[in-house]
Amino acid sequence: MPDILVIIASPREGGVGAMIGRWFLDQAGQRPDLRLDVMDLSRTPLPPIQSGNADGPGEEARALAARIAAADGFVVITPEYNHAYPACLKLAVDAVRHEWAAKPVGFVSYGGRSGGLRAVEQLRLVFAELHVMTLRDTVSFHQTPTQFDEKGRLTEPDGANGAAKVMLDQLIWWATTLSQGRAARPYTP
Ligand SMILES: Cc1cc2nc3c(=O)[nH]c(=O)nc-3n(C[C@H](O)[C@H](O)[C@H](O)COP(=O)(O)O)c2cc1C
């Protein structure tokens, strides 16, 4: 059973990201075929970028690397900020290197009219550099607040719930397959 790390990439504690995160964790939590870990970047100390010849990674970088290393796959839940993804996500991505490699990532995005899709397309370029397999199918929320009621529940859940199932099915296939592949033959980026 693959270990999936869900990264909630909003820098705003209690923002829309928290609401989307609750919805997604409810969906993923119902599945018997994965184990979940959750990293909320609004509450995660992020390390400074290492210079390369410093005394090695600091405590925050080691903690982050351990969480990434323990995962077989990832889901990134990201808003769109100025046609891109938030800076806290780039910090987290850049703080770790080989621990990302040969694993899949799925995306849940949200924003205004674009539904965060431009943030996702930029993330595909970034993750390619780290040898991360990005999944074709994503979940996106356009004009997000209009889709949830005052209790944070989706008013018309079928579309998003179905999209989450498609993405999770793909994620589990890739996470399981690449985990077996790494065990059979170490991947050397
Ligand atoms: C600095 C900033 C820039 C934004 N830029 C965009 C954008 O380019 N496209 C878009 O669709 N929404 C944009 N938005 C709207 C956010 O995607 C939307 O408000 C989202 O729900 C914010 O998520 P959060 O509450 O988790 O921060 C922007 C919001 C902020 C704060």
From TrEMBL:
Signal peptide (from-to): none
Q: Which residues cross the membrane?
A: none
Q: Name one GO cellular component term.
A: cytosol
Q: Which Pfam families match?
A: FMN_red
GO MF, one example: FMN binding
Concerning InterPro entries, the annotation shows: Flavoprotein-like_sf, FMN_Rdtase-like_dom, NAD(P)H-dep_reductase
| Domain NADPH-dependent FMN reductase-like, chain residue ranges per copy | 3-144
- For this entry, the protein name equals FMN reductase
